[in-house]
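Holo prediction. Input below; ligand is 6-O-phosphoryl inosine monophosphate.
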Amino acid sequence: MSVDLLLGLQWGDEGKGKIVDVLTKNYDIIARFQGGPNAGHTLEFEGIKHVLHTIPSGIFHKKVINLIGNGVVIDPVIFKSELNELKKFKIDYKKNLYVSNKAHLILPTHRLLDIASEKSKGKGKIGSTLKGIGPTYMDKTGRNGLRVGDIFMANWQKKYDKIKKKHLKILEFYNIEIDFNLIQIEKDFFESINIIKELIVVESENFLFNAIKDGKKILAEGAQGSLLDVDFGTYPYVTSSTTTAAGACTGLGIPPRSINNVFGIFKAYTTRVGSGPFPTELFDDFGEKMSKIGNEFGSTTGRSRRCGWLDLVALKYSIRINGVSQLMMMKGDVLSGFDYIKVCTAYKTKNEIIKYFPFSISNEDIKPSYIEIDAWEEDLTKIKNEKKLPLNFKKYIKFLEKELEVPIKIVSVGPDREQTILRI
Ligand code: GDP
Ligand code: IMO
Ligand code: MG
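Structure of the complex:
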C-alpha cells in the first residue's frame, strides 16, 4: 500500500500543483496519470511562480523521481518549452524526469482537429483549451494513436505521415477555415521530438511495480477535476480522460490494491473555466470579489474563471466516486471580509428537493438550495497555526467536515508553499 492519490474534486484548478509540491518531501516518486497540457498546475515558493502543464509538480525537489505516466498525452512542443523553463532553475530533468513509452503524442493535426471540432459546435462548444486533447484520446481509444515509444522505431515517419494524411482528410470534411502553417508547426514538432529522445523513457508500469516492491513511496498526481471526468463529469462538457481515482490505475499501470490514501482537493468556493452547467455560479458582486481576490484566471489559457458558492452536493458526489480519505481545502483566504458565505446543500428539481448529483445539473433541471454561514473579517494569509484561525473560519471547517464525513487535513491560506496549515 505505498501509493497515495491526489485529485481535484471540482472542475479543476483546485490547487493540486501547490499541494503536490508541499507533499513531495514525503515521497520518492511523483507520477502524473492523465490529461495533458490542458492542465496548468501552479507552484509558488521563494517568491517565484511556476506553471507546469505536463511535468509532475514534484520536479523542483531534487531527490524525487517525476514520472509522466502512460495515461498522459504529451504535446512535444509545449513539453520542450516546459523543459526549457526548468533549465533556468538548474533542474536536472535528464536525471529525475521519466517518461512512459506508452504515453500518447499530441500531433500538430490533433490541435487543428480540436479547433475544427469546437468551431463546428458553434454555441454548444465545450470551451476546450484547444490543446488537441479530445482528438488525441479519440485516436488512442480508436487504436490509431502514436506513442512515445514509436519515435524510436524505424517506421516512425511512415506512421506519422499515415495518420497526418487521415487527419487532413477529416479536416477537409469539417470544411472550416483555420489559419495554420503546417510546415512551420511540423518543424517545431519534430525538433521537440528530438528533445524527448534525450530523456529517460521507461516501461513505467515495470518501473512502478519494482518501486512498490522495494517499498518506495509514490504520489499519483491527477489533472483537471472529478466533475470533468469523461464518465462521471458534466458530460459532454468534460475532458477526454478519467480524472477520478480509477484513472490512476489505468494511467500508471498500478493495481487498485496498492492504493492507500486518496487526497481530495477543493476550493472553499467553486470555479469553472469553459462551458457547461454550474448551478452555484454567481453573476453578482460576490462572484466578482472571488474572481478578483482569488485571481481566478486560467493557468493555461488565461481565460477568466467563472466563480460561485461551494456546492456540497457535487463535492459529496466526487468524494464518493474517488473514495477520498483526506480532504484539503484551498483558498479560504479569498473569502475573508465577505458579509456572509453561502453553501449549496441540496438541489431543487421541479417536484422535489434532492441531495444526490443527478443526470443533468443544467439550469432548466435544477436550482441550488443554500444555507447561509457567518463569514470572518480577519486576513488568513499570514496565519501558520490552526489555533490562530478566526473562530468563524474554524466553524466553517467543522461544518464541512460534518457534512462531508471526511477530515480536512490541510487548509491552504495563500498560493505560497509556506501558506499551508496542517491539521492534526
Ligand atoms: P491546479 O490546476 O489544481 O494545480 O490549480 P491552478 O494552479 O490552476 O490554480 C490554483 C490557483 O490558486 C493558482 O494560481 C495558485 O497559485 C493559487 N492558490 C493555490 N492555493 C491557494 C490558496 O490557498 N489561496 C490563494 N489565494 N491562492 C491559492
Ligand atoms: P487543471 O489540471 C480547469 C476544461 C476546459 C474545458 C474542458 C475541456 O489545471 O485543473 P479540453 O482542453 O480538455 O478539451 O477542455 O475542460 N479544462 C480544465 N479546466 N483546469 C484544468 O486542468 C482543465 N483542463 C481542461 O476549460 O471546459
Ligand atoms: Mg490548473
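The CA atoms of residues 45 and 417 lie 6 Å apart. That is the main takeaway for now.
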